[in-house]
Write a structure and sequence with these properties.
Blueprint lengths: L5 E6 L3 H12 L4 E4 L11 E2 L8 E2 L6 H5 L15 E2 L3 E6 L5 E4 L3 H6 L5 H13 L1 H8 L9 H14 L3 H4 L6 H11 L11 H14 L4 E2 L4 H13 L3 E3 L13 E6 L3 H8 L5 H8 L6 E9 L13 E6 L3 H12 L9 E4 L14 E9 L8 H11 L7 E7 L1 H7 L15 H4 L17 E3 L13 H15 L1
Parallel strand pairs: 1-2, 1-10, 2-9, 6-12, 10-16
Antiparallel strand pairs: 3-4, 5-8, 6-7, 11-14, 11-15, 12-13, 13-14
């Protein structure tokens, strides 16, 4: 530590903690960032999880929201050596008959892959894409009504579809490929597809594939964390690792403290400073379903039945809309689905640094009830094998992380919830609790900047960036 007093301290070095610290340092505030682990990153870390030479992203792996983020747009991370890789196909969704929906940057080509639903797809995605630049700034923010009439209209038009359940939006399509494609993107919400707002995830993720692509980071997601830390230190900020903060007294003298933690951790660290009403609100905060993560080391690429899937960075596995909806419904009921919806990435096809020559990696996860102890490894492998016969014969090594292991790795993943809290209609705009400034707390020196604040989960840094803006505004008053 180089100072006796800091204008601000940030606890937690996930994307939001790093974004908060960078935003404050950009405003010439003295900042120290504290991380309990030996490296920064939170969910942005990579490691040889299976076998030596096989580099797997531990949590976040595909980064459309980083490319779309207004915060990331302010940074020139390329000067620190960050390199994005954009696979030719952002997303593929295969079906049992060997067909597949393929989403590329080209809307026309994507529509063509959907057959007679092509025109409907253009109508479905067109309005969101048309207002993408302004829309993404308004969506990756707390609820507000833009002053500019055109932006207000664009946001309202988006909201008409976004507030709907995916089970309503799917009526736009007639055939299984387009319907399944919508289901896979909507399931990123970790909600039942019959729930309001699940449609928003379908619209945003599909539009992002056309607007910014679904890129990966060369060398692993840990590179993104490393260059963000380099940006922070280049601005004069300090990074302190191997320093766990369990109470406010563990911090050096400071002005404001920003916590990249969920309500559970904030209460443990500073609950006595929160006030009874706010504390009750945090205790009522609801966590969502968990994730079960599986990494595989392969003796060759995934043997997809449909060879076009080899061009996709991300593949959604789970079959038809009805099958995926049933899987997510089971999770919501507290059951582990026999045929889970699987989100898969195949980095080594596009980044040779991820595996030894001729070998490959698989990154995959499915949704499970919060805190589930069930090992879903074989069920995930069965779903891959369903569309890639012979996969099992290529497995050299595997590494699994259930909800308990994920929470041990990152305390913010309560019960395996990688979104920092359930993102349903009741908690999308009021996370972590109802408050005019969602980043502030009753203590004027304590702020929360994690994905438990708007706009929620994902590697976009906007929760931290906006929380830092709140600190700066408070300092002006």
């Amino acid at each position: 530590m180089t100072r006796e007093h800091y204008d601000a301290v940030v606890i937690g070095s996930g994307p939001n903690g790093l974004a908060a610290a960078i935003t404050l340092a950009q405003a010439n505030r003295s900042v120290a960032l504290f991380e309990a682990a030996s490296t920064v990153g939170g969910g942005m870390r990579s490691a040889e999880l299976t076998l030596p030479g096989f580099v797997h992203d531990v949590c976040s792996a595909i980064h459309p929201l980083a490319r779309a983020s207004p915060f990331f747009a302010t940074l020139d991370l390329g000067r620190h050596g960050l390199e994005w890789i954009e696979p030719p196909v952002s997303l593929a969704h295969p079906l049992d008959d060997g067909s597949a929906a393929l989403v590329t940057r080209d809307v026309a080509a994507t529509a063509a892959s959907l057959g007679r639903d092509g025109a409907a797809y253009r109508r479905f995605i067109g309005p969101t894409l048309a207002s993408w630049g302004a829309l993404i700034e308004d969506v990756l923010a707390p609820f507000h009504i833009p002053f500019q009439p055109d932006r207000a209209f664009g946001l309202a038009r988006f909201g008409l579809g976004a507030l709907q359940p995916a089970s309503w939006l799917v009526r736009s399509f007639a055939d299984p490929p387009a319907r399944a494609l919508l289901a896979g993107c909507a399931a990123h919400s970790m909600l039942r597809l019959e729930e309001p707002i699940s449609g928003a995830f379908a619209l945003l993720f599909l539009a992002s594939a056309h607007a910014v692509g679904w890129p990966i980071v060369r060398g692993g997601s840990s590179r993104l964390a490393e260059v963000l830390a380099a940006e922070l230190t280049g601005l004069g900020g300090e990074v302190v690792t191997d320093r766990r903060i369990d109470r406010l007294a563990d911090l050096p003298p400071h002005g404001a403290a920003l916590f990249d933690v969920t309500p559970r951790q904030l209460l443990a660290i500073a609950g006595d400073r929160m006030g009874i009403r706010y504390e009750r609100g945090l205790r009522r905060y609801r966590y969502g379903p968990g994730a079960f993560k599986l990494d595989l080391a392969l003796d060759g690429p995934i043997p997809w039945r449909n060879p076009e899937l080899a061009g996709a960075g991300t593949v959604h596995l789970g079959g038809t809309f009805e099958e995926i909806a049933a899987s997510e419904r089971e999770v919501a009921r507290g059951r582990n689905p026999e045929r889970p919806f699987v989100l898969l990435a195949q980095h080594s096809l596009f980044d040779a640094s991820r595996a030894p020559d001729g070998k490959h990696t698989v990154w995959a996860y499915c949704h499970v009830p919060n805190g589930s102890p069930v090992d879903m490894s074989d069920r995930i492998i069965d779903q891959i094998e369903r569309f890639a016969p012979g996969l099992r014969d290529r497995i050299l090594g595997r590494h699994a992380m259930g909800p308990a292991q994920l929470e041990t790795y990152n305390a913010n993943y309560v019960g395996g919830d990688i979104n920092g809290g359930r993102q349903d209609l009741g908690q999308l705009f009021t996370r972590p609790t109802l408050r005019l400034d969602p980043y502030s707390t009753p203590d004027p020196a304590i702020f929360i900047c994690s994905s438990s604040t708007p706009p929620g989960g994902g590697v976009h840094g906007m929760c931290g960036h906006l929380a830092a803006k709140s600190v700066l505004k408070a300092g002006e008053r």
